[in-house]
Amino acid sequence: MSHSYDPQTIEAKWQQAWADHAVFRTPEGDELPGKPKYYVLDMFPYPSGDGLHVGHPKGYTASDVIARVRRMQGYNVLHPMGWDAFGLPAERAADRAGVHPAEITQRNIVTFRRQLQRLGFSYDWAREIDSSSPDYYRWTQWIFLQLLEKDLAYVAEVPVNWCPALGTVLSNEEVQDGKYIETGDPVERRLMRQWMLKITAYAERLLADLDTLDWPESLKEMQRNWIGRSEGASIAFPIQGRSATLTVFTTRPDTLFGATYCVLAPEHPLVTLITPPAQRQAVDAYVTLARNKSDRQRIADVHEKSGVFTGAHAINPATGDAIPIWVADYVLMSYGTGAIMAVPGHDERDHNFARQFDLPIIEVVLSTDEDTNRPSIAEEAYTGDGVAVNSGFLNGKLVADAKAAMITWLEENGYGRREVQYRLRDWLFSRQRYWGEPFPVVILEDGSVVAVPVAQLPVTLPAISNERRNEPMAELINPLARAGDDWLLVTLPDGRTGMRETNTMPQWAGSCWYYLRFIDPHNAEQPWSPTAEQYWMPVDLYIGGVEHAVLHLLYARFWHKVLYDCGLVSTQEPFQKLFNQGLIQAHSYQDRDGKYYRRAEVVPHDDTWVTAATGKPVVTQLEKMSKSKLNVFGLDEVIEEYSGDALRLYELFMGPVSASAPWNMDGMEGLKRFLFRLWRLVIDEQSGAPDAKIVDVPADTVPALQRLLHQTIQGISESIESIDKLNTAVSRMMEFLNVAARSEILPLTIVKTYLRLIGPFAPHIAEELWQRLGEPDFIARAPWPVFDPALLVGKTLEIPVQVNGRLRTVLTVDVDVDEHTLQQLALADTTVARHMVGKAMQRVIVVPGRLVNIIAK
Ligand code: ANZ
């Protein structure tokens, strides 16, 4: 019987063995003290119906290697996995299939779990969580109640995109030119009652604490931009003939002398108040037009500015001049005060607008560098630094000083004050969907909102038939409002009656705190135990996609800070170190009509590609793997053809973890060959026993191999600490194998140490070989090898080199250098070469360990 490498059998065997012996169980209770901890977390996936493809496990493989190494290094490791299971895609898929979203979700979870297990990831499956299960969302609701108690959750009328034909609200991304992009049905902006979370109250801390995090700088910058802190001033302009004032926010108070008109956002409450009858019709018409545009559209158009004069005037507090008040949609109600002072000389948007409507442009900042080709202020706004001109008491001051002087003047004269604005808006936290967490609140008959008593949590999702859930209705009726009265109508313990809230929470809710539940996932009394939280938090390493840079990662930081303020968590930040994995791309094939083809449907032709069926030319391109581009390699197929270990190694070998790289099946071949060679290094394929070359002798029996081993330990350990360079760790393993395969003798201890290095990367084969070498326990529990610095460099010898019997130089060489290498080294030496000029070499005499003599004429 042959004993060749059979990955499918071996991998199934070890996955079972790890599970049976709970090898990756997270230590708890008495096991915790006295050992360092390491919490390594993957962003938990949304279990979609497509299953996993080879692009998904790149980050999971990296985190698994780290988790396994840390266990071997003696850390208590928490490495959990779970499912971000609520959300619209599951609801849509359920509708298409005519089943309940919970059913689709459970089906997908089974597939995802099976696929992840095939890769041998060392998750503690006993801690698996599912954000759509009542045991979990009970606590999501509980945290919401903490937010409500702290006045960080509130209800507000906010504009949404309502599509009457579809009977639903749409996101900004789904609307263009006032129409739903899919069907062209008109969409109106409507005010609707929505739950909001006051994330803006945390803007300053969310910004400042970024500095304490070990995250990629680019990612921190994205969060900084999203929070968008602006320093400036608020300035109150008196309105001519009225007692009301018009307050603006500006980052350039130094330009007040150049403010030649003001602009209100179309939704600004002052618009109707100040517009005189003669202008009312024109203003109303404009406001209606603007209302149907999304904010995004309104700011997108830089050149075509639209607007209307209200007929009213404001007084510029610095000059005393009456300046016209306009309404224009380039001013957004959602930022600052919803009103601006326009300085066309120094702001591009104002400049465009002023030219379009013939409004005065005044220069109030003069550049200090002498560029005579600069266009005049009439042609182009000057937005750079400089000195104030035409600005009374500010004249001659540089922008920064002028800003400060103007703020002082405004404060002294009661016209304004220093102000900080954030671009960050409060978080719209309700959705008109079924498959999400119900809000744990009741709306009483008088419209007031009260929390459901904690003892009554969770508020479970009512069962509603698919037909009922999807029944079209003319008015917006939330899916949950279609539940029966037994769910909808509530009597509180004190006898008051009311209706349940029928909005649900957005998909982001469950992922805001899941990392805390992993710490103590089965706790029925508390969301987590405080002692366990103090032990495990913060997450030491968090790996996931960059697409979550500002959504999940900002929301989770916000909730965490609220929990900190409630005294429920012990750290200010949840994720200390964060790493983004790169995308795996694959070639797609597309004809000129945009139709995609699978790789199997195209053939090469004259340096390009054509379809096999019709010969139609196609272009090939590297793109992110995606089902719609037909360029996906499914995880199951690849594991079946190669193996879980080969896939793990290839995911890492493709390049740095953070880099995007193209998928290449030839690369998989290479890693598969490596694993076969590794097998043959250790196993005699005739008998299945260890190879006869492996003998139980001290490591220094083969000093060169011992040295390479220690260099390999050092190299791999370093790439593990860098996280990003795990690809070089794989190369190191291959280099070692190349040398070891040529060695006549393999000391057993060297082979075992080498296997321990391989363990975290290709865990199945490593366990099997470890066992076949007679080890009784799992390699996953063996200690991580440590290198001996003294063994990194070999012992050296001094060898005299003669040319025609005369000493010319002395070489310092490795003790066990071979004859051939010694000869090469001698001939390559520059001093030797100098004495050979004009001579032809005839013979080289090498006395190993003693001398080299070159005979030349
Ligand atoms: C006068 C001025 C003069 C301005 C100048 C700029 C340059 P950031 O940096 O993004 O915070 N602004 C204020 N509120 C606005 C709103 N609701 N919609 C549209 N624009 C608004 O931008 C602040 C600047 O954007 C403010 O400073 C204001 O224009 C404008 F030479 O005021 B500025």
Question: Could you explain how this protein is built, in words?
Answer:
The protein is an alpha+beta fold and 857 residues long. The strands form 11 sheets. Strands 26, 27, 28, 29, 30 and 31 form a 6-stranded mixed beta sheet that branches. α1 (7-20) crosses α25, α20 (644-653) packs across α21 (665-682) and α22 runs parallel beside α24 (748-758). The relative contact order is 0.11. The chain binds ligand ANZ. Ligand ANZ binds at residues 230, 249-252, 255, 331-332, 335-336, 338, 340-341, 343, 346-347, 421.
Shape by Cα distribution: globular
Look at the structure and give the mean pLDDT: 93
Content-based structural category = alpha+beta
CATH class of the largest domain: Alpha Beta
Proportion of beta-strand residues? 15-25%
- CATH homologous superfamily placement of the largest domain: Valyl/Leucyl/Isoleucyl-tRNA synthetase, editing domain
Low-confidence stretches: none
User: What does the main sheet amount to?
Assistant: 6 strands, mixed
* Record field, number of beta strands: 37
**Would you give the CATH topology of the largest domain?**
Isoleucyl-tRNA Synthetase, domain 2
What count of helical segments does DSSP give?
A: 27
The share of residues in helices is: 25-40%
Cα-to-Cα separation, first versus last residue: 62 Å
Using only C-alpha atoms, the radius of gyration works out to 35 Å
Architecture of the largest domain, according to CATH? Answer: Alpha-Beta Complex
> Bound small molecules, which ones?
ligand ANZ
Domain tally: 5
